[in-house]
Amino acid sequence: MMAQPYGYDELNRESRIGGMGTEGTHAVALIDLSDFDARKPEIADQLWQAATTLGLFQLTGHGIPMAQIEEAFALSEAFFAQPMEAKAGMPLRPGTNAGWEFKAQVRPSTGTPDQKESYQITRPRMDGLWPDEAAIPGFKEKMLAFEAANWAVAMKVLSCFALKLGFDADLFTRAHDPASPEYQSTLRLIHYLPMTDAKPEDFTGWRAGAHTDFDCLTLLHQKTGQGGLQVCPGHAAEEGAWTSVEPVAGIITCNIGDMLMRWSDDRLLSNPHRVRMPRPDEYLGPRYSIPFFAQANKDFVLQGPDRKYPAITAGDYILERIRANYDALKARG
Ligand SMILES: O=C(O)CCC(=O)C(=O)O
Ligand SMILES: [Fe+2]
């Protein structure tokens, strides 16, 4: 038997999924959250069905106004349009999910950096990392409000999973308390570089290489016409059957992350996803997306209903994942 080089199943799988694979055709569930309190049992059924199969679904009726989403994208474009020197003054502090990076995220699945720049907002870690108020008026206040709006939607979805897992309805809300200094949920602005002047060989790379997310639940905002997201359900990962997810402005695409998969004793599925390059005959302009990563507070203890895995704090879980990722990259050489 071949030695298993990495300590985590997620990574052993990830190291095999860096290739092109084939196209899949899974239906992506579109789930309406409107009238949430009255319809919660029915909504919980739909979320559970989607999260235990494809592990990815889309939301309407989530309550975040279209104007607020458009404003967030406009502020994101303004952020990345700043001069390089200005952005370099707000550098990502490694391991903190706060600040700006340029082509610095290398995925174990591909061994190459994602073709993007990003700016991450994690509430307790932002000292010195906000753009000048004069440079982008209202940026900090509006981004924090957008972060809070996403948090609220994430907590609604997570409360449905709590119900299904037999946890008390507020467990995940307590676990993601934004008032705590241990808070580690993140709003990430992403700018994938335009491919208009790219060389033919540049099209063989990935905008974002295949990966699973570390968090509990990811809420992703996309723009109509700026496609490329693909998901591969776990049971198909060996064959690499990738289903394309159509981006529609105003609809939130959600996926389960590794932390919730562990916390649910592997019932909710954190599946590999990636952002492919456009083909030369497709839209070649920049691509903007905004994910919100709901990630339990560092000091919160994760333990599944059937205790399949030992209890671990969310902080230690993330540290282990970062270390395993690092080792996986080293093993690639
Ligand atoms: O930009 C996208 O559409 C997906 C981004 C993503 O998967 C991530 O940042 O984890
Ligand atoms: Fe992701």
TrEMBL record:
One of its GO terms (biological process) is ethylene biosynthetic process. The keyword Metal-binding applies. InterPro entries: DIOX_N, IPNS-like_FE2OG_OXY, IPNS-like_sf, Iron_ascorbate_oxido_reductase, Oxoglu/Fe-dep_dioxygenase_dom. This is 2-oxoglutarate-dependent ethylene/succinate-forming enzyme. Keywords: Ethylene biosynthesis, Iron, Metal-binding, Oxidoreductase. Transmembrane segments: none annotated. Belongs to the iron/ascorbate-dependent oxidoreductase family. The lineage of its organism: Bacteria, Pseudomonadati, Pseudomonadota, Alphaproteobacteria, Rhodobacterales. The keyword Hydrolase does not apply. GO terms for molecular function: 2-oxoglutarate oxygenase/decarboxylase (ethylene-forming) activity; metal ion binding. It comes from Roseicyclus persicicus. Gene3D superfamilies: B-lactam Antibiotic, Isopenicillin N Synthase, Chain (2.60.120.330). PROSITE patterns: FE2OG_OXY (PS51471). Residues 182-296 form the Fe2OG dioxygenase domain. It comes from the Bacteria. Coiled coil: none annotated. PANTHER family: 2-OXOGLUTARATE (2OG) AND FE(II)-DEPENDENT OXYGENASE SUPERFAMILY PROTEIN-RELATED. Its EC number is 1.13.12.19, 1.14.20.7. Its cofactor is Fe(2+). Pfam families: 2OG-FeII_Oxy, DIOX_N. Pathway: Alkene biosynthesis; ethylene biosynthesis via 2-oxoglutarate. It catalyses: L-arginine + 2-oxoglutarate + O2 = guanidine + L-glutamate 5-semialdehyde + succinate + CO2; 2-oxoglutarate + O2 + 2 H(+) = ethene + 3 CO2 + H2O.
